[in-house]
Design brief:
The structure holds three protein chains of three kinds. Chain A is 70% helix and 0% strand. Chain A has helices at residues 2-5, 7-21, 26-63, 79-88, 100-115, 135-156, 160-191, 196-201, 207-210, 212-226, 250-275, 284-287, 289-311, 319-347, 353-387. Chain A is globular, with a radius of gyration of 24 Å. Helix content of chain B is 68%, strand content 0%. Chain B contains three helices and no strands. Classes of the chains: A mainly alpha, B mainly alpha, C mainly alpha.
Chain lengths: 397, 117, 169
């Protein structure tokens, strides 16, 4: 039973016994165990990542009324392995005029910025990774490194498409960071901590019920941060033919691609952790750590599926519209939501929990409705400026 | 410290994995570069001039506005952490802080700095 | 020497080395990237000091925002992105003088300070640095006025930047 509750500690103690038995100093043994743990976790993620390629292709084909990979192995499951072999034995070209050092560092940073996010993911009550008390900001900090990798890739490739793609992508990523930071403050207020583990522990009621609008804004900002459709300005295959990663081939391109898929899955996970209770599911997490991991992976998968659903349903938005949407709609809305939430949270501190939850939920719905109305009126005025007031057709007989 | 040691391990392993993957590909892949293969990708005519393109000033403006609001929200995080225990007075202080910055956003908007042209 | 000291020395060497590269490299984008490396080194030093909040904020603000702004500014002002222009301008001796004076002044001041030979007291377990900061920022007898003034300052910076950009557009 103990092993089911806290497998990591038992495994670590067992390894510690072995390593110190070999005459290794305890601190070195602990560092080595930590290293092995991180290596196993991240390798497992890379294996999952390979599987995600299959998931993504299968899901998109279903959305588009196709079958998708179905030749190699049962349900095409071996297909991603074939893809990997292809990536591995492809020639790795570097365009002339490229800045070789920066060009080669960019894909490494891109992958790293996704992998380091998993340091703060609480997989189970006893499997915390690192319970960092600045978790929410760490999420943004890792995103900053991702942004940097894109600008490096775009600049070092010595290609117009790559550079334009990188500019656009970076402009979008940094812009949507503001609403994301702002809605990250909301779970922080509820939980009284920025730590992902504390936020999960505090969700006796899923935060999506008390801040549905916050969850929605986080999802939108996350999709922009990922650079996926409808926010895939940087790639825009029909105009920029792939954007910042166009000059990359073989495994270096593979790193960008795999990084993007894993990033989407990871943000699905963070969405689940911040707003859907993370590993908590009706006490299931208390039974066994393995069940808790299964719950959080399942929730992350659902989040990932929703991100895919949006990607394959919506059209690409033009960059000026996208930035206007962020700065004129999403950012003010996020700030107003933050103020309303903080105020209501303080006013209703002593209220009964059903009352607190329903007021919070209703205030979010009301705020969402008002903001949509304001946007509608504003856009109608903009439209009238362009085409003149709408003439109501009178029926003639 | 030990927390940050683990974060450091994540950074190290997070670099080792892509280096390993690219390294294996480098060993396995063919290496036959030629001048045509290495030309810059274009989907039409060959590239004219260098890769420099007209950089829109707007990117810079958005980065500036972003910087200001980034710093602002970072200031709010310690406030948010303690909000549950601080009561209404602290909430009002935070709201004043946000309102002052919204004035900045409105100013930028009215000056037409958020337009893309 | 403890492991922590070795890590500190490595990080400090990395930070100073990239700082040196910032001022010696001829390519402006490379200088910006080296600057990012320097700022990251500073973030690691914050982390070594157990100042987690500052470490993360250093990355979010300096690398995520200011460095991106620098790169955009370089791309905006330079016609050729692989600019190899002159590295020094006429005032180089003045900059060198100021940095030597600053270093000398710091050296002089720190000589009389006995804090360098002391080891820092351990942080009590359960000490919530971010929470303390939050308390200090809003309590009336601490920093509430600077907190609000910071917001005014940010707006002033925004207005100034918009004004400059507007005139130059």
């Amino acid at each position: 039973m103990d092993f089911l509750q806290d497998p990591l500690k038992i495994a670590a103690d067992w390894l510690l016994g072995i390593f110190t038995g070999w005459g290794m100093p305890e601190i070195a043994a602990q560092v080595l165990i930590g290293f092995l743990g991180v290596l196993i976790l991240l390798s497992a993620l890379m294996v999952l990542d390979i599987f995600l390629v299959w998931v993504e292709r299968k899901v998109v084909s279903r959305f588009q009324d196709r079958i998708g990979p179905n030749r190699v192995g049962p349900f095409g499951l071996i297909q991603p392995l074939a893809d990997i072999i292809k990536l591995l034995i492809k020639e790795d070209t570097t365009p002339e005029g490229a800045d070789r050092v920066v060009y080669n560092i960019a894909p490494l940073l891109s992958m790293m910025s996704v992998l380091i996010l998993w340091a703060i993911v609480p997989l189970a009550p006893t499997m915390l990774g690192v319970d960092l008390n600045v978790g929410a900001l760490y999420l943004i900090a890792a995103g900053a490194i991702g942004t940097l990798s894109i600008i490096m890739a775009g600049w070092a490739s010595n290609n117009k498409y790559a550079l334009i793609g990188a500019f656009r992508q970076v402009a979008v990523m940094v812009s949507f960071e503001i609403p994301m930071l702002t809605v990250l403050l909301i779970p922080t207020i509820f939980a009284g901590s920025m730590g992902m583990s504390a936020i999960t522990q505090n969700q006796d009621i899923w935060y999506v019920w008390i801040t549905p609008l916050g969850a929605l804004i986080f999802l939108i900002a996350a999709i922009a941060e990922l650079g996926r459709a409808p926010f895939d300005m940087g790639e825009a295959e029909s105009e920029l033919v792939s954007g910042y990663n166009i000059e990359y081939s073989g495994m270096k391109f593979g790193m960008f691609y795999a990084g993007e898929l894993l990033h989407a899955f990871t943000f699905g996970g963070f969405w689940a952790i911040l707003f859907f209770g993370g590993y908590r599911f009706f006490g299931l997490e208390q039974v066994s750590a393995f069940l808790a991991v299964a719950v959080v992976v399942f929730k992350a998968m659902i989040g990932y599926w929703i991100i895919m659903w949006i990607k394959y349903t919506l059209l690409r938005i033009r960059i000026d519209h996208m930035l206007a949407f962020n700065w004129k709609f999403l950012t003010p809305l996020a700030f107003v939501l933050l103020m309303v939430t903080a105020l209501l949270n303080a006013l209703l501190a002593d209220a009964a929990s059903w009352f607190y939850i329903s007021i919070m939920f209703l205030s979010n719905v009301l705020l969402g409705w008002i903001s949509l109305e304001v946007a509608r009126v504003y856009s109608r005025r903009q439209r009238e400026k362009v085409e003149g007031p709408k003439v109501v057709e009178v029926a003639h007989h | 410290m030990s927390q940050w040691l683990y974060i450091g391990l994540f950074f190290v392993v997070g670099l080792i994995i892509p280096i390993g993957a690219i390294g294996v590909a480098w060993i396995l892949g063919p290496k036959k570069p030629n001048p045509i293969k290495q030309t810059t990708y274009e989907c039409g005519m060959e590239t004219v001039g260098d890769s420099w393109v007209q950089f829109k000033a707007q990117y810079y403006i958005f980065a500036l506005v972003f910087l200001i609001f980034d710093v602002e929200t970072v200031f709010l995080f310690p406030w948010a952490v303690k909000l549950g225990q601080l009561g209404l007075f602290a909430v009002i202080e935070g709201i004043i802080f946000i309102l002052i910055l919204i004035v900045g956003l409105v100013y930028t908007w009215r000056k037409g700095m958020l337009e893309w042209a | 020497m403890t492991a922590e000291q070795i890590i500190f020395l490595l990080v400090a060497f990395f930070t100073l080395g990239s700082g040196f590269m910032v001022v010696t490299t001829r390519n402006l984008i490379h200088a910006a990237l080296w600057l990012i490396a320097t700022l990251f080194g500073v973030a690691v030093i914050f982390a070594l000091l157990d100042a987690g909040f500052l470490a993360v904020v250093q990355v979010v603000v300096y690398i995520g925002a200011i460095a991106i702004l620098f790169i955009f500014a370089v791309m905006l002002t330079r016609k050729d992105m692989r600019d190899q222009g002159p590295q020094m301008n006429r005032n180089w001796w003045f900059g060198a003088l100021i940095s030597v004076l600053t270093f000398g002044g710091l050296y002089f001041l720190l000589q009389g300070w006995n804090g360098l030979s002391k080891t820092a007291a351990d942080i009590p377990s359960g000490f919530d640095a971010v929470g303390e900061l939050g308390n200090a920022l809003v309590s009336p007898n601490a920093y509430v006025l600077p907190f609000e003034v910071a917001s005014v300052l940010l707006v002033a910076a925004l207005v100034g930047a918009v004004y400059v950009a507007f005139n130059w557009k």
